[in-house]
Amino acid sequence: MEFEGKVALVTGTTGIGRAAALRLAAGGAKVLCAGIDIAANGELDALAAERGLSLVTHQADLSQSDAVAATVREVCQRFGGLDIIVNSAAVHPYGTVVDSDAETFQRAFAVNVGSIHLTGHFGIPEMIKRGGGAIVNISSVQGHACQKGVALYVATKGAIHALTRAMALDHAGDRIRVNSVSPGSVRTPILELAARTFDGDGADVDAVFKRFGAAHPIGRIGEPEEVADMIAYLASDKAGFVTGADFIIDGGLTAGIGVA
Question: Cys-Cys crosslink for 24: which of 29, 56, 125, 234, Cβ 3.0 to 4.6 Å?
């Protein structure tokens, strides 16, 4: 119960966001998990109720300033303040800069990077009232090294690394630590989208996941709960001397080079 007495805001109610919300709540935190997908929100609410967790969802488009302001108000009014923010909301467009139009570019940055700006803009003043806290931003190994055909997505993930460092420096004096996590291939709806993008709508997703996993030296894809454990460490007092850093959790994917 390392998060007893803590209040957390998590963005994204599927994949890593969902796993992080459940992990923090299981550790004793009161959690509000915000996402745009009404069905996913309902599934998470039901799971939290089944497990007896202090976790509720809130429907919001996290790219919109008014929606994020309302989300922060909701978590503070419901639970009395804010100590932890986990930014996991994301979209994953495919294409080169030639393929991708301005609207797709703007949406990718508004969700993947803009939501981090907005939760910080509205949330950090509330965290300061509580004497500090921790922010964990979910990036990707694609922010370090990338595939072809994902130009906008990788640009947002690289931006998250830079924004994390800036936030860490700006708010160290407020006793707010800010770090990022960069997963490799993890069993999430976004990875399922990748499977269907590369292999077609009729793809055998499990077979594609096995192929993706074979590219990782550890021999498999990751599970959201494994990333959630890293997030929990960074959000906890155990990481009290850790800020401005990125933590790669990728089964060894970026440790090697593409020469056999």
Answer: 29
